[in-house]
Structures are given as structure tokens and as C-alpha cells.
Amino acid sequence: AFGTANGGDGKELCATDHPIVSGTEQNELTTAADLNETSLEQALIDIAALTDERGLKIAAKGMKLIVPSALQFTAERLMKSTQRVGTADNDINAVVSMGMIPQGYTVNHYLTDTDAWFIKTDVPNGLKHFVRAPLKTAMEGDFTTGNVRYKARERYSFGFSDWRGIFGSPGA
Question: pLDDT tens digits, residue range 102-127?
Fold first, then answer.
């Protein structure tokens, strides 16, 4: 998401300078930050400020927090605590009480960066998944041993059409 894989605008999936007609737009924190209450709130503010190609607000919302396994305990505290995390204050947890991330969080064990985190948004046609070849199974018996062999095959394609479908931070 933060590397060299370019989308239609010549930028990686998460960038601070996606070109649009009226200037640039971002789907990455301006200053990379680890997952905490402040960075999560800033990401949700930035998602709400997303615009279309002409610079008009699109009222995007964060739907699901996606974290690597190294951040699952931090995500649990941020998403399930009714009060502010790690403070002696008796303030409410605004993210939880306002329902800012309605689908909660999920742990993706295949994320390789231990401090990068993402928020999937409600922008349609963001992340894409195509089944290129549906599941096909076959079996055959082995005459000499009497064993039966099974095989299955399917193919997928993954990508994105609209970078506004996800918001991310590579961590500090």
C-alpha cells in the first residue's frame, strides 16, 4: 500500500498526494503515526474530509479497522473500551460512543508490516477482488495402491479502482 505498486493516477494505494482536478488529496496520514487514539481520530477526520475529482466532499465514513497481529491488543483497547485508553481521565471513548467504525476491527495475519494499519471506507469500487477461475476439483484413483488423489484449483486477482476505499498509516 505504501510501496511502488501504482494505481491509475501513478501513485501507490496510500499516498498523501493523489492528483485530482482541483489539486491533491490524501488517504494516508500527513505524518505517519502508530495506532493510538489520536492517530485513529485524525484518520477518521481525514476520511470525512475526502473529496471527489472536482474537490466536492463525498461524505465518506470509516467502516472497518484492519490491523496486523502485532496491533490486535491495541485495536481491542481502542475499539472496545468505553472510556479513553491509557489515561486517568474519565472521558468517554469518542470513537466507540459515536459509532465511527461500525464494523469494528479485524486482524489480517498476512500483513507484513507490524505497525502499519488501515481503515476500510464506505467508498464504492475501492478495493477489488475478482475470481479469475472458479474452484474446480478433480479426483482419480491410483490403480497400484488403491489410494484416491484429490486436487482443487482456483485463481484470483486483487487490486483497487478507487484509492478512497482505504485509508492507511505505515506507522511511525
Answer: 999 999 999 999 999 999 999 988 88
Per DSSP bridges, beta strands 148-160 and 166-169 are unpaired
Sheet with strand 166-169: strands edge to edge: 105-107, 62-67, 117-121, 166-169
Separation between Cα atoms, residue 22 and residue 99, nearest integer Å? 31
Q: Is 133 exposed, middle or buried (0-12, 13-18, 19+ CB in 10 A)?
A: exposed
φ, ψ of residue 48 in degrees (nearest 5): -65, -25
User: In terms of Cα–Cα distance, which of 92, 52, 51, 47 is closest to 65?
Assistant: 47
Proportion of the chain above pLDDT 70, given as a percent: 99
What value does the CA radius of gyration of the chain take, rounded to a whole number of Å? 20
Helices (H) and strands (E) in the chain, counts: 3, 8
Are the C-beta atoms of residues 68 and 107 closer than 8 Å to each other? Answer: yes
* DSSP codes joined into one string, 41-71: HHHHHHHHT-B-TTS-B----EEEEEE-GGG
Q: What pLDDT shows up at residue 103?
A: 93
Q: How confident is the model at residue 20, as a pLDDT?
A: 86
pLDDT tens string 26-66: 899 999 899 999 999 999 999 999 988 888 889 899 999 99
